[in-house]
Amino acid sequence: MTLSLDDVKRVANLARIEISEDEAQQVLMQLSGIFDLIEQMQAIETSNIEPMSHAQDMIQRLREDVVTESDQHMLFQAIAPQVEAGLYLVPKVIE
Amino acid sequence: MLNASLKQLATQLLQRKISSVELTKEFLKHIKTLNQELNAFITLNEEMSLAQAQAADNMIAAGEAHPLTGIPVAQKDIFCAKEWLTTCGSKMLSNFISPYDATVIERFNQVGAVNIGKTNMDEFAMGSSNETSYYGPVKNPWDSLAVPGGSSGGSACAIAARMAPAATGTDTGGSIRQPAALCGISGIKPTYGLVSRYGMIAFASSLDQAGPMAKSAEDLALLLNVMAGFDTRDSTSIQREPEDYAHDLEKPLGQLRIGLPREYFAKGMSNDVASAVEAAIAEYRKLGATIVEISLPNARLSIPVYYVLAPAEASSNLSRFDGVRYGYRAEQYTDLEDMYKKTRAQGFGAEVKRRILIGTYVLSHGYYDAYYLQAQKLRRLIANDFTDAFKQCDVIMGPTTPAVAFNLGEKSSDPIQMYLSDIYTSAANLAGLPAMSIPVGFGDKNRPVGLHIIGNYFREAQMLNITHRYQQVTDWHLRVPAGLLEV
Amino acid sequence: MQWEIVIGLEIHAQLSTQSKIFSGASTAYGAQPNTQACAVDIALPGVLPVLNYGAVERAIKFGLAIGAKINSPSIFARKNYFYPDLPKGYQISQFELPIVQGGSVKIQVGDSEKIVRLTRAHLEEDAGKSLHEEFHGMSGIDLNRAGTPLLEIVSEPDMRSSAEAVAYAKALHTLVRWTGICDGNMQEGSFRCDANVSVRPRGTETFGTRCEIKNLNSFRFLEKAIDFEARRQIEILEDGGSITQETRLYDASRDETRTMRSKEEAHDYRYFPDPDLLPLEISREWIEQVRAMLPELPEARRHRYIQDFGLTVYDASVLTAAREIADYFENTVKQLPTQAKLCANWIMGEVSGRLNKENIEITQCPVGPKQLAELLMRVSDGTISGKSAKDVFDSMWQGEHSGNADAIIAAKGLKQISDDGEIEKLIDQVLAAHPQQVADYHGGKEKAFNSLVGQVMKATKGKANPGQVNMILKKKLLE
After folding, report:
1. Which are the contacts of A67, defined by CB distance < 8 A and separation ≥ 6?
2. What pTM did the predictor assign?
3. In this complex, do B381 and A44 lie within 8 Å of one another by their Cβ atoms?
């Protein structure tokens, strides 16, 4: 399968990474090489194989429904790029 | 003192021959001498380190000492440590003072260990040479032209150069073992789930595992005793009886069966590495071990599988770096989307962006089954190979890396060559198995060679026993790069 | 052409847990911005989710209440997209294996009953809120709501009118509150509806292109939005146009739906199993435990009220609209087992009218079910008339005489004269005083009878039991 320049741009947009035309060209070359390597996977027949998502065969542990956290917004917001009145500020959100 | 084992240091501290403050100062002095050249540490905070050392001295005076109380430990900059700059080697977090402690940091704090500084690393742990760090490359103490390996290159370098007696690392595809091998030190990646991932900045969650890096297996055992343990804050943390990893260190090897995977010895390994590894295996024979040839037929797929799964998880894990709540935000932008795109374009380095793009692609509509799902299925086949292999042997050995450390800049423009550095290591992450690397000699240009040992699930104590026995009859782990201690 | 409207609903119910679905932060509503957003909720680097038992238990409860299958294992997946109120850049949700699969809800529209099938219900985390008031041209982000547990309940496209959609939404609203898994507070956003609406020529099988209408926060808006949207689609199709699949927003102030400013790309959420969370397994024993905790459900009660108490379908439905009302009704009837219809009438009439007027919940009603029963007992045994009972009820509401019905009746002298001898005596006097009416009655003038009853009631100042008066008067006139 061949990766196109449009694929690179589409994916960069999905990942919210600004990419110039030149960068996209360069990334396309590198990614194409990597995908050639990845392509080896396609030769293996896996129709009866259960996908493996986790390194251990374990089940989810549950937390008791109790409030354990207290207000730390002053601490957390001390390292925020822009805050006001306890809110994180971002360029206007348009719905 | 700089070359002492953890046990020796603990004895000195306990006998009050030296205080933790003195010890910490001595290491800090050594770090200051070397760091300019080696760049192993991103952040030093003398005041905080010494305050911890003072507290440790008080603990010792009060008779509350733990084997690691007062001992300086270099922390990989991937672990969030309260009030410490925690950058993960990225511009994105170049201003991130962590408001909380990772579980690993908390556990070291509890026993009174001293955080001696935060070590350099490949950006977000993505790299095998430490060249992707926003803070510049780390140099290999054995040869300043060589890379130290990555991503835990700063920690490996710090141990090799005796800038710290102990360090932490994390390993997603070989990030503890590969730099350990390239820097001639010992490192272990435990069974997935043994060490809590809470507060360890995620790269690929289902593969990431923290572990200790040190001079010897014995030191690793003492460090693992602190790091390992169940944590309710990590859903993938394993609930099991605590173990003393130092308990069995001296045990005779007995009927140890060492499996040598046919595939690892077939081709790809350079001659210098092959001869050092074969010599180590000969040593094990002398110690009474039996050698069994085994097969890991799907191991060759571990690089493609790894380079689908790890970027996929990473692309999602790194979405939180958006310039909204912490970290870097672009200076100039026109609107929200532009803020996101510029922040992430400027805040991430080339390798991180490359992996985010790969990961985003393999998860995107229409490609998921062919890439992500197929990789997950092959992951199972790779894991099954090990299950079969461990029916015939107790541990699996081979080279940690195909070759000794390469030169700085040699592979940085060729991602594929770089990715192939993990060819022997990433399978253990895919399977979740414990694996380690110990120094077993020197190869070309007198650069260190590492022996790779993969154990069965939760057999860390056995692996440390095996490597400790080896280190009792050899001295590779005691070698120090020339000139470093005389500075 | 005759058009048929096809509607499916997606309802987000906030689960009534103390803490968030993946963190130990509080879910309480109305706190100062970001004071309930902990390290996990603001997605600091390195933090990890751990699943809340209470959220899972509530999802199981819901699944059992609608007769669905509880999947074990079920899987948590990441839904990836960028939005400032989504701190991780992904929402933890369920995709391929949701916790609840299938099930159905019975709805009542007019006289007909209908079954609406559910596709699934899955657990997920809520996002924070963007506040759009001015911050130097910027938006403010409050993450207090981020991580609040949600159950997203997805129906099959089984509804054919806005009335059915509303009935279904109301039935679910009743059910989630009934089982205590959600407080159902629509103003606070605890129960939010999205509607998928399409139209097709009546009699055809294939579905038309659908539009999703977002965030309908009242039943009235749900109805109006569907009606508007259906009209809009029909107009387009009748003009020869075609429908574009899109997400639309209902604007209540203009009573119309409009295209949500489209994001410049098609959504590609890149779902994949969350590596931080393991498969959720739910044991048989746990399911049985939850089943044992389930209260008798509205449908079962409705059925019982019709069977055992002889109530109409309508009455039974009104009384089971909320568990508190049904409980009030049953506690009243317990005291007066033979007078279920009287109890029902009073609760649906006087009691609920008064509650509405005062804008309070039935649980806060100053006249408790036992007190109401005491009052109704006096109505049923003829001590007071229905009319005076309303006065007594009013006094009880005000708390007069500690709300004791008998004491109020006595104090107000409202007791009816129901002694046969006394009434006979009075009737004899009235008959003697009005010979003309008596003659008229015997001459066939029915109206004369009513006039005589009136005279008797007048003589007793309205305190005679009218039924009794009628009966005795008839008997006397026949003598």
Report:
1. C18, C19, C24, C25, C26
2. 0.92
3. yes
